[in-house]
Design brief:
5-stranded antiparallel beta sheet; alpha+beta; about 30% helix
């Protein structure tokens, strides 16, 4: 029986190697949704870093629910140029929500508060969060002086359903962790 060849170690040109180099790249821009702190809004964030050698841009996007679920979505992508980044990520995001430049520490703090609060309720961040948060390298959430508040009115979780949410599972988790009367539920708009 023939032996399988030993796996070759990943080279710097391997598809995911950029992900581990990108945290050292210069910060290109940090954007945060204008209404991120409003009770009925989700915080939308975009963090981008640019390679000094190739000009490629690594970008991470986060959608955070500070009232209940924490990091609803997260993704990280590589763009071959600033133009590619603008076209594929920045412009579509700005077409959906008003964004403003933000400090990396504030974005990191929002993510930290969202993840920690959601964990107390039994929710985990999007699976791609661990990779996307690599682009937060150098951030110091504790240095952020902007108050970031988790939870809804009266300090209770406030779950606002969105289309395609697994509503029954989310409500069951909330009922198990805080009781049937321990949270607010706002159904998705039809």
């Amino acid at each position: 029986m023939a032996r399988k060849p030993a796996p070759r170690p990943s080279s710097p040109s391997a598809p995911t190697s950029w992900l581990y180099q990108a945290p050292q790249w210069q910060l290109y821009e940090v954007l945060l949704s204008l209404a991120w702190a409003d009770e009925d809004e989700l915080a939308t964030m975009l963090v981008a870093r640019q390679s000094p050698r190739s000009g490629k841009i690594a970008a991470a996007s986060f959608l955070v629910d500070l009232r209940c679920l924490g990091v609803r979505t997260a993704f990280v992508r590589i763009c071959k140029s600033a133009t590619d980044y603008e076209r594929r990520l920045r412009e579509p995001l700005l077409a959906e929500t008003y964004m403003q430049p933000a400090e990396l520490d504030l974005v990191a703090r929002i993510l930290q508060v969202g993840v920690e609060y959601a964990a107390t309720l039994g929710f985990s961040p999007d699976p791609e969060y661990e990779q996307a948060r690599l682009l937060l390298a150098g951030a110091d959430p504790a240095a952020c002086t902007v108050p970031v508040v988790a939870g809804g009115r009266h300090g209770r979780p406030r779950y606002r359903a969105r289309p395609n949410d697994p509503v029954e599972r989310i409500l069951a988790t909330l009922t198990r962790t805080v009781g049937a009367d321990g949270f607010e539920y706002v159904p998705a708009k039809a």
